[in-house]
Design brief:
GO biological process, one term (chains A, B): negative regulation of DNA-templated transcription
Oligomer: homodimer
Strand content of chain A: 15-25%
Organism (chains A, B): Knoellia koreensis
Largest sheet of chain A: 6 strands, antiparallel
Pfam families (chains A, B): HTH_IclR, IclR_C
Protein name (chains A, B): IclR family transcriptional regulator
Keywords (chains A, B): DNA-binding, Transcription, Transcription regulation
Low-confidence stretches of chain A: 1-7
Helix content of chain A: 40-55%
CATH topology of the largest domain in chain A: Beta-Lactamase
DNA sequence: TCTCTGCTTTCATTCTATGAAATGTTCTGT
DNA sequence: ACAGAACATTTCATAGAATGAAAGCAGAGA
């Protein structure tokens, strides 16, 4: 899961997080052996970690399977209520959604993934389920605008993890293709994606900068390829960039 | 924070969770020394834990303060999408809310607190903010129905932590009062609360049992003391109990 | 400038965390 | 029903991670 980064002490804690990440990425419960395999840990070690986490409500189990526990809710709640970014994002998304009629979201990068941290549904709210906290790829959709501003080392690491890949729409991308696209995105400041993560879906995203100019988040509008039609793209690009800039200013 | 339970290995992991819990309970960022103080740990230890957590996105910091990190969202998402209880609760709450017009919730106990794991707003949705994952007391409101079914040891531990206490409405409760009320609640299977956690608020709650008969969750309807009027209580008690039983059967 | 408070680093020691292996348990297929 | 495999748990000796004291820094305030 995570490469052994030299200089990082606290091995058992680090491994516990490995275990948690395995659980977080699984759509259903997993057995001990499988968790150990995916986390790259010894079974005995994995068991001890799971027991410790279970004792604290961070993990739940039935007879045979382990899954995420209720205790994990507290952390998310704390993040959503204390993060200045989340607080700043809400009103911006509200405006963006009512102006465009599209579902508007803010993403943040963590490691080599991203997470939705705030979302306002557009006029036709597709699904009820709130996707906050879903782990999404950094190389597809709005993730690209975040990927485009990675350091060289981080970008290479990302490439080595995902490239080459195929989008949901069937487009094949090599590492070179992807790097080139990221350069383009960085130039224009806008990432447009069609059929990348979901077929029939299209999105427009722009980067949010913190006070130091570092890219910390992305603002996105998304919809079907009909609601985000080709001839709206130019206008949407401007709108989304404005929203992103507005959010940047609020930080 | 957590008593040293003998036989629990994985000390550093356990302490890391102590640190996380401190952060989760803080309405805003905290300084290193303060976190160490609240968690009952040495500053150096606390710092190492925070660094390890920060490296994994579980904690964020600005110049001086630490707070919960984005990485914590993933766990909550995983819990909400994989927990059978959450899945079973949703339709039951939907029915309950439309039948009563009241905000309907399911709570789960973790340690000596509880968490909202599912909620459907009633006819007058008070607040936009989604409270899923909020840590709430076990001795007030719907928490009582969970407290009423604790083991003797756990109940004593809870008492030692909170009793004596005063409700939001100003009622003073000693440990004996509280124990007596819990006995009553256990007998009737229903917990009614007025002005306990919030002034002007009233709720009715019933217990959910798993296959083994253990109490695993609580179903609650809540509103103002006007919307949950005295003369509705009898009918609501039956409705809520039915909902709880229905949920029990789905597990 | 000096002092106080809080943060970070260093270091020797201890005892936690570790993995191999043995033991116990639950599936699977015949 | 049985044998064999796969999985889960416990035990144990050892390595080295985690620990806390103390020293070294940095920043705030007087």
């Amino acid at each position: 899961m995570s490469d052994k980064q030299p200089g990082n002490n606290m091995r058992s804690l680090d491994r516990a997080i490995d275990v948690l990440e395995v659980l977080e990425d699984a759509p259903r419960g997993l057995r001990l052996t499988e968790i150990a395999r995916r986390a790259g840990l010894h079974v005995a070690t994995t068991l001890r970690i799971l027991n410790a986490l279970e004792a604290r409500g961070r993990v739940e189990r039935d007879e045979t399977h382990y899954r995420a526990g209720v205790g994990l809710l507290f952390g998310a709640h704390a993040y959503l209520t204390t993060s200045p970014l989340v607080a700043a994002a809400r009103p911006v998304l509200q405006d963006l959604a009512s102006e465009t009629g599209l579902t508007s979201s803010v993403f943040v990068r963590t490691g080599y993934s991203r997470a939705v941290i705030a979302r306002v549904e557009g006029s036709n709210p597709l699904r009820y389920e709130l996707p906050i906290g879903e782990r999404l790829p950094l190389h597809l959709g709005a993730g690209k605008i975040l990927a485009a501003h990675l350091s060289d080392a981080d970008r290479d690491e990302l490439l080595s993890r995902v490239a080459p890949f195929v989008t949901a729409g069937g487009r094949e991308m090599t590492g070179e293709d992807f790097t080139a696209e990221l350069d383009e995105i960085r130039g224009s400041g806008i990432a447009v994606s069609t059929d990348e993560r979901i077929i029939g879906g299209r999105s427009v995203a722009a980067a949010v900068h913190d006070r130091d100019g570092a890219v910390t988040a992305a603002v996105q509008v998304a919809g079907t390829d009909e609601s985000v039609s080709e001839d709206r793209l130019k206008a949407l690009a401007i709108t989304v960039r404005n929203a992103a800039d507005q959010l940047s200013r609020r930080l």
